[in-house]
Amino acid sequence: MSGATIALAEPEEQAATSVAEIEPAPRAAAWYLIFVLTLAYTVSFVDRQVLNLLVAPLKADFGLSDTRLSLLQGLAFTTAYILFSPLFGRLADTGSRRRILIGGVGLWSLGTSLCGLARGYWQLFFARAAVGGAEASLTPAAWSIIADSFPTRMIPRAFSIFLMGPYIGGGLALIFGGLLLEAADGWDLSAVPYLGALQPWQVVFLVAGLPGFAIMLMMLSIREPARKLAAKDSGQRMPLAQVWQTFRDRRDFYGNFYAGMASLVIVLYAFPAWMPALLMRRFGASASTVGVQYGVAVLITGSIGVLAGPVIAGWLQRRGRIDALMRVPFFAALALVPISLALAFAPSYEFAMVVATLASFTYSLPQALASSGLQMATPNRMRGISSSVYVFVASVMGLGAAPTIVALLTDHVFADERSVGLSLSLTCAVAGAVSAFFVGRALRGYRRVLTLQ
Prior knowledge:
The chain is mainly alpha-helical. It has 21 helices and no strands. The longest helix is centred in the middle third of the chain and has 33 residues, at 251-283. The chain is globular, with a radius of gyration of 21 Å.
């Protein structure tokens, strides 16, 4: 029985497998690991996405266009993120994942606080780059350590919990970012050395950086699990030549998987990046109102979506779909096309919020499944590098390209900042269609790879 089949099998089906195939239930330490890693992932998204609610004050203070602002959202963060991802991926395969996680959390929290001390555009740009470079440590180390901490049948559920982090973090960034921005505007810090000269948006960055230091201390108590080895794994470090050959031999899966999920990630990042600006510019909503209402919507529907993914995949598995972990992303990508197009015709704030809520649920639905499928289809000693490649391509398209594509359309095609909704709609609809094409092509390769494990 393949790893994916065991992962999604019902209890009755699992009982029929041999004793050797059934792994023991996870210990309390594994659940504590998931708890701490989910907190870390949540904090990472607070740190990277709180800027999305600070569009108006940053434009006013630095005199920015949407395009230059989008470079802070995307290019500054992403350039460092993608440069360091392969390095951290290789380190996750060969070294201590625990140490990587502890160092990464501390460094990105420091970078977020430095954003709050920025006095100019370029200082903020490079502080954002520091955040991006440090956050590149999280995904390859966390994915690898989760896969080794849980029995195969529970990996999708473990990933679904961990991958609630972006939606909880993105929601909290909007909720508390908006409320804190409004509150800080009325604070009198003139008597506090240095802090008295800070703008409200700078205070938001400083506060956002603090929780990460507490998470870093919690990580000191997690353990490095032993690496689980498949029958064909030697337990030794996999040479880079063998890693490359594995990618080549399984390119019908890896190539289409990376292209399809990178396109889907465009939707995941474009909506949170520009939906607050759309609601404020087009419908005149305040930052605090948008922060709370859209933040709650992202937090709830995103979390429900990522938890529902394994349930839906299990339903498909019971109906004979051994490729269920990839089939759900395919249908989610298809559904995002009409959902995104509907945004262009939103006649009211309420309608736009409904569309944003549907989008949040739909683009979160396949995330845990795609992550689990990638781990199951990959030999243990190259899981870190396969995850870092995923991070690389997803970051280029999602973190790097998504905010800027929307901004370029707004600034140079429609030439009206109130048209950001149309730009967002077109970008996400096209990305959803491209994602469905490539993920659909990956299905056959995924089925073939499962037979090799």
